[in-house]
Amino acid sequence: xxxxxxxxxxxxxxxxxxxxxxxxxxxxxxxxxxxxxxxxxxxxxxxxxxxxxxxxxxxxxxxxxxxxxxxxxxxxxxxxxxxxxxxxxxxxxxxxxxxxxxxxxxxxxxxxxxxxxxxxxxxxxxxxxxxxxxxxxxxxxxxxxxxxxxxxxxxxxxxxxxxxxxxxxxxxxxxxxxxxxxxxxxxxxxxxxxxxxxxxxxxxxxxxxxxxxxxxxxxxxxxxxxxxxxxxxxxxxxxxxxxxxxxxxxxxxxxxxxxxxxxxxxxxxxxx
Length: 272
Fold this sequence. Notes:
Blueprint: E1 5-6, E2 12-23, E3 27-32, E4 47-51, H1 55-58, H2 61-64, E5 68-72, E6 89-91, E7 94-102, E8 105-109, H3 111-118, H4 127-131, E9 143-146, E10 160-165, E11 181-184, H5 186-191, E12 200-206, E13 223-231, E14 241-245, E15 249-250, H6 256-259, E16 264-266, E17 268-271
């Protein structure tokens, strides 16, 4: 079975593409996609290239190599399309299962990777369908893993200092956030290569497996977040601080203790 190719720096994934073609009844035929124009000589299928995306920093290379893109035959009639076209793919002892979709592109991977991804949507399993594409968002300005080994500034070696607020709650309105809109410190914006004079789009992810087992900090579940940040050193005075509105976080709305978190520190992944 085809394997995803990973660049030396781990930031570029070339994911093999397979076509799912409906045949008689609720049956399908899996076909190798034809190499696209400009393909590397010797390649036997087409590849979906994902660059500077959160997925490359969140999961192990062993799990990432199981990635596969399945596209439904564009010539298939609507009446012939059904869930069977996205059923598991098995070959010998190797299995690929549907992870999430982004438009007409369906991402498959190993059952182990699916289990890891499920942690990001533990209170809203169906959210993987709506927000799974955040894993493969191309962060054009680059990506950074912020933590003790890569601090925001020499004087602050901790990771992201995250405060989650809700713009609909009266006591939180002093932070001036809005729907998927928040603030960060100028030092963090500079670290990410983001502009300081205008708002910028961001993706912020945390994998609970990164937590220090010796830390006495409360459990923080894996999460995905997206939206827009603006720089404001008065609202976010610490070099590594983000004021994040609850609406930016996807997939774990039932975790009330997470929304009440204040001054939380921990290793986090951020891409701007």
